[in-house]
Amino acid sequence: MSEQSEKIDRARELWRLHEAPELLQVVNVWDAVSAKAIAALPETRALATASHSIAASHGYEDGERIPLDLMLTAIGRIVDAVDQPVSADLEAGYGDAGETIRRAIGIGAVGANLEDAMRPFDEAVAAVRATITAAEAEGVPFALNARTDAFIKAPELSPDEKIAEAVRRGRAFLDEGAACVFVPGPLDEAAIEQLVGGLGARKLSVIGYPGSVPPARLQELGVARISYGPWTQRVVLTTLQDTATALYAGGTVPAGTRMLN
User: What digits encode the pLDDT tens for the residues 208-253?
Assistant: First the structure.
């Protein structure tokens, strides 16, 4: 099978996973070894990178402060380390969403997050359009998880206005060819029901965090996808720091530690 054929097959599988009746859970990773650890689990059907976590692991703050070349190199190593489809977190597109997506496809990513950062509506829609156009030019059925930050970057809006704006932007993104709409933020069941009602079943993507709505309930509510952003890295770092504290106190490496590297 050629590299292009393999890429197309992975892209089609990622699209299928977004449209399937089952909730798609993607556990975010940030380097080759974290990707291999997650990919080895039989439940893993696809993986997603976390831009925040990749940036942090290289000493950068989140928000496109890590150089794009370094971000793409990290994503490429993750893609090469696993057999499953990989969706890449490409933040707001690094100034040129179409070109950034083209380069991401070149290293094997078959889906991506692209955030609107609450830019003007027409600019946000144009970025999604540029992404889909670039993917079509590459011949890849790219699964775009188009993100709107209505819940986290529009403090002037009321809760109902945030839902309305997320739906307005999300519908436009879907019309341009996005696979689903990512609405990060503290969403309760009522907000999720309204978003699913406005966007359609199996079109909403959410983030998991401590205390968020459990995956089984999200599936019942018609959510398409859940990812975990920087929280997976935070879990690992919490365990590492707690283990170091125990070691400094005279303890030993925890029993049951697996040789995953």
Answer: 999 999 999 999 999 999 999 999 999 999 999 999 999 999 999 9
CA distance 108 to 32: 14
**Reduced DSSP (H G I as helix, E B as strand, rest coil) percent helix, strand, coil of the chain, to 5:** 50, 10, 40
* 89 close to 184: Cβ distance less than 8 angstroms: no
Of residues 191, 239, 178, 184, the one with CA closest to residue 62: 184
DSSP letter for 117, please. T
d(CA 132, CA 9) in angstroms, rounded, equals 17
- Can you say whether the dihedral through the CA atoms of 211, 216, 218, 224 is positive or negative? positive
All structural domains of the chain:
3-248 (3.20.20.60)
4: exposed, middle or buried (Cβ count in 10 Å: 0-12, 13-18, 19+): exposed
Two structure tokens written together for 80: 């090469």
Q: Given this model, what pLDDT does residue 1 score?
A: 67
Distance CA 190, CA 142 (A): 31
Token code pair at residue 39: 């990919």
Q: Whole-angstrom Cα distance, residue 30 to residue 35? A: 7
Question: Per-residue b/e over 74-91, b at no fewer than 16 CB within 10 Å?
Answer: bbbebbebbebbbbbbbb
